């Protein structure tokens, strides 16, 4: 079997159904796993109703994104694992092209697809630097390739490699696990790739629609600092913290001055909350 597809769902019923429908026309031999992290919407009954042949795992607690993916990794029989977000639509030939790309490039351990916005415009999905990398002093010198990571909406990786790495680091609950996995793959001497002719539509953020923007920002920043603690020297982290605290202090001052003139109070208050979160986390 070529591909094992893993989708983690959390309150994304409509998007998940549309995603699974698109997989019905996806070329190539495949098996599909959906791991539901205690959705309170109609995700589970809809998947059971419309896709009875899909292997559905319903968790009793929200284990987080990385752990939910890891949960079914031992069950996967494909040569490749495709991590797929539920708010995506996969073009019919995307899997076939992704597998062909990986077969041709044995030096690549994981690769991302060409991610498109719902209107067909290009969505930024390739990063050449990690968070805070400009403050490093040689930590990235031994990493293979020039791509740091790709967007986790669609990632294809070698099953044998993921088994060796034990999948995602489950300390990352949500956000940052894709960057960490890419780093560890590059440490093994394999590069991160980009498959330009494998196209996937991505809506983005559908599982967090009920979460306030500042709370999402806090989750992402905490994930960044976990990434720093795993891969950067203490001196590098200190430089990052000093820079972030200086910027946040300055921005809070300017926001205070401009508050009476703010046209969008919600946006103004959200920025204020985010910079306060930076001061709190960087001050630890």
What does this structure look like?
With 284 residues, the chain is α/β, with parallel strands linked by helices. The protein folds into two domains: 3-208, Spore Coat Polysaccharide Biosynthesis Protein SpsA, Chain A (Alpha-Beta Complex), CATH 3.90.550; 213-282. The protein contains nine helices and ten strands. It has helices spanning 13-23, 43-50, 65-72, 94-104, 159-165, 177-187, 213-231, 234-258, 265-282, and strands at residues 3-9, 30-36, 55-58, 80-84, 88-90, 108-116, 126-127, 149-150, 154-158, 191-202. The strands form two sheets. An eight-stranded mixed beta sheet has the order 3-2-1-4-9-6-10-5, sandwiched between helices. Helix 7 packs parallel to helix 9 (265-282). The model has no long low-confidence stretch (mean pLDDT 96).
CATH class of the largest domain: Alpha Beta
Low-confidence residue ranges: none
**Helix percent band:** 40-55%
Please provide the count of β strands.
Answer: 10
Mean pLDDT over the full residue set: 96
CATH superfamily of the largest domain: Spore Coat Polysaccharide Biosynthesis Protein SpsA, Chain A
- In CATH, the topology of the largest domain is named Spore Coat Polysaccharide Biosynthesis Protein SpsA, Chain A
Largest sheet: 8 strands, mixed
